[in-house]
Amino acid sequence: MREAAWVESNYAGLAGCADPVAGLNGMRERALSRFLELGIPAVSDEEWRFTNLSAIAETPFKLAAESGSSPQRLSEARINEEGAIELVFVNGFYAAGLSSPPGEGLTVRAVSLAGASKRDAGLITNHLGSLLSFEHKAFAALNTAFFRDGALVVVPDGVKMGRPVHLIHITEPGAEAAVTHPRSLILIGADAEARVIESYSGPAGRPYLTNPAVEILVGANAHLDHVKLQDEGNQARHIALNRIALERDSRYSSNVISLGAALMRNDIHTALKGEGSEVQLNGLVLAGDDQHIDNFTEIEHAQARARSQELYKVILDQRASAVFTGRIHVRKGAQKTDAIQSNANLLLSEEAKVDTQPQLEIYADDVRCTHSGTVGQIDEDSVFYLRSRGVSAAQARDILIRAFAGDVIDGLPSHAVREKIEVLLRERLRGGHLVRAAESRS
Amino acid sequence: MLQVINLHAAINNQQILKGIDLHVRAGEVHAIMGPNGSGKSTLAQVLAGREHYTVTSGDILFEGESLLEKSTEQRALAGLFLAFQYPVEIPGVNTAYFLRTALNTLKRERGEKEIKAIEFQEFLRSKMALVDMDESFIRRSVNEGFSGGEKKRSEILQMLVLEPKLAILDETDSGLDIDALKIVAEGVNRLRDNRNAFILVTHYQRLLNMIVPDVVHVLYQGRIVRTAGAELALELEKSGYDGIKSEFNSVVEART
Question: Do B88 and A382 touch (CB under 8 A)?
Fold first, then answer.
């Protein structure tokens, strides 16, 4: 089959490569054989109806080699926040020299998986792969089979972190199309509080594939705010899996900002495993040219009295396309579930295209689930109103686009992150249209 | 200040304005009255540069220059202001931010120094007091969730902030209770001086009791059919438009 040849050519010689972390006990081999069984999903697969991966199947990638990073790219990726803990991964390898981990001896750990201490090795053995199953997800299998490194973030019980942890993933492809599979594990103890920011970037004009997988456990009564900033190069493909489990009375917010990549699929599965837990999934998509951005979200209400709110705002220009899937499962017994889902799409061109799919499966009777999906254009009456006050037509449109994204941006968990997104958004707005990041910076 | 010359305008090939002549000088207040559907709002929108409408002939001169080739924002920057009959709700656009952006655009145009955020807040608060606007106004989105009265007061507030040379109030009085009407009238009277001018588009006499116009026009079927002093509004209040309608229709019949 073609996947076997693809794997052989991409990862030649890796079969005998040592596991990056101990205790995987053959998990990688199982993942690889499962990937070969599953294959790269085709559009005939219900979950991939609107996202065509044939370009990936046809591209010979090479597992990226260790590399330095362009200083400019790193500085652009940084978030200007005092005291931020930064772990930098270049081509999927931990770059110790570029990182600023928390000091030794602190209870909070933010380290590379491969560099984890003996005491943390046990945590990795226990948790890695516990939330992310590769049984039905080809790219989960691929990540598990070939990840080289990633982050381990451990916030012990009761620790309330003021400063954020920023995981910076940069791809610096060589001559060939590069592939990386960063793998991260984030463990937030009971009653703890933390903020984690993930960012992904790479050069424009170079094809590469980023296939991250993140597993997050939020302990009882804990609170985690999570931001993902996807600002990959314009020929990159980004196929990510995120698995989050919430214990009793915990809170988790996910804020996925999608700016870059030729193709993105961000798959989030949040399990509300404890009573009274609460999740907020926010997303903002800004896509132009031929970008294709697919947000696939699932929320599983497994226990009673849990709340979920989902808000995805999508702005498309030129021939860009976007998919939003919002699956909500309410299990039997998950009474008093409160789930609100909203997906709004703003189209700035005639050719832009969007598919929005709410999928509600409800097996409890005392629940409140609402969803809405809208697709629209810039309101010309509003443009006229703003212009009648002297604001130019171009600026009026930019103001209205910013306003559309407003509730997602305002919901971001820190001032520094909001500022960063505001700047990135401003850079890309030009008179009611989106321009490429590269153009806006030149 | 404003000269409208034989103005014809159409929407979707339907002629709405059929030859309007209007001359408004600095220091004057003109009222434009007339029954529903006579073209009053169209005139207001055409003056503001709404692109839905096509000017098929005639001209609009503002301080001697034709507005026809000018965009809506260029007209605003030249000193024209339209208080909307139905102000648009714009969620996500903060009112104070928007007004400061508009004011600073104007200031740049006039070669004046821009106003800083903090300074603007003070300035805006002083204007808010004049139209009895609640403190929360500063934080709210443009017109979002405003009551009808709040929207109209917000229009007047914007007018007070932007200090236009010519303000066109399109049925700002409709749907207002007497207190709100007073606020609107006070706003106009406060701004009114010998360097600016107002056009009040209205159905009713009651606003004109509070803002006494210099000239009253009656617009009917796309034409100004009568022009007189403030007493015309009183007369219309008493006898309605029927007299004018039948007079006009008999003239039209006589022509055909």
Answer: yes
